[in-house]
Q: What sequence folds into this?
């Protein structure tokens, strides 16, 4: 396989509330992939956007910069296996016939953090990669279906001509609420789908936040303030609207409001 020289890389700005994975050359590279059909992916880069998802979410579109018309591409999502040289297809789009220039196609594929974007090329000479010293793509002959895996071999000094837009998942679940009667507070535990920012607030409540750096559980404390705090101490119980918001890194926020009854003991323990 021969890879011709091309011009420098183009920087593609990410869409609002989305993350860009991979990148395209500034001009269509010369046809470098001549078939027969193969699968391609890229595990690392010497600089620039990674070709791996750094968050769970949905691939909403993908692009490539084609030197001409007629080749067919299938966008794929790959996942590492226990064998460092083998990768499994965990998602794939339908086949698309390319036109000359930048092709951008809609998609709707779920990814988990760490998944890799790639493609299957077929149908004649095409621009599946562009020269970049120090980089390298991985190639496997054939067309892997979803659930299938294969061992990939390196092709050096090139980078994959592929870009995808990832919308990070903003889902979260309230998994438990623990009330502390002695001081009239509560601990609310949520399970977040991605790294990001989790905040807690509401009328009469102190604002709290947590910044999980991985998907998983975080705990936020529910504490009253001002008039709500005095009313709770006087009555011994108080219903409050707890507003929880989760904003994944690079994504849109989502909010849930939980009506919560706080209980405070009127008996002050001896110290």
A:
């Amino acid at each position: 396989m021969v890879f011709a020289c091309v011009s420098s890389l183009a920087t593609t700005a990410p869409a609002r509330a989305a993350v860009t994975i991979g990148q395209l050359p500034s001009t269509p590279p010369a046809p470098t992939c001549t078939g027969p059909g193969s699968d391609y992916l890229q595990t690392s880069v010497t600089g620039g956007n990674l070709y791996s998802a750094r968050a769970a979410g949905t691939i909403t579109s993908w692009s490539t910069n084609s030197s001409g018309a007629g080749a067919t591409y299938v966008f794929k999502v790959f996942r590492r296996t226990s064998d460092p040289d083998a990768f499994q297809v965990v998602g794939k789009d339908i086949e698309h016939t390319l036109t000359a220039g930048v092709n951008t196609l809609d998609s709707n594929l779920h990814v988990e953090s760490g998944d890799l974007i790639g493609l299957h090329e077929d149908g004649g000479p095409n621009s599946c990669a562009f020269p970049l010293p120090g980089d390298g793509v991985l190639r496997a002959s054939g067309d892997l279906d979803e659930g299938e895996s294969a061992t990939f071999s390196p092709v050096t000094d090139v980078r994959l001509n592929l870009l995808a837009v990832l919308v990070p998942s903003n889902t979260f679940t309230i998994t438990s609420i623990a009330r502390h009667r002695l001081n009239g507070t509560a601990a609310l535990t949520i399970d977040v789908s991605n790294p990001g920012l989790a905040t807690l607030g509401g009328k009469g409540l102190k604002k709290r936040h947590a910044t999980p750096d991985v998907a998983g559980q975080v705990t936020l404390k529910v504490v009253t303030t001002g008039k709500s705090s005095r009313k709770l101490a006087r009555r011994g119980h108080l219903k409050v609207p707890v507003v929880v918001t989760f904003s994944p890194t690079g994504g849109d926020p989502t909010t849930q409001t939980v009506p919560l009854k706080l209980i405070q003991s009127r008996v002050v323990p001896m110290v």
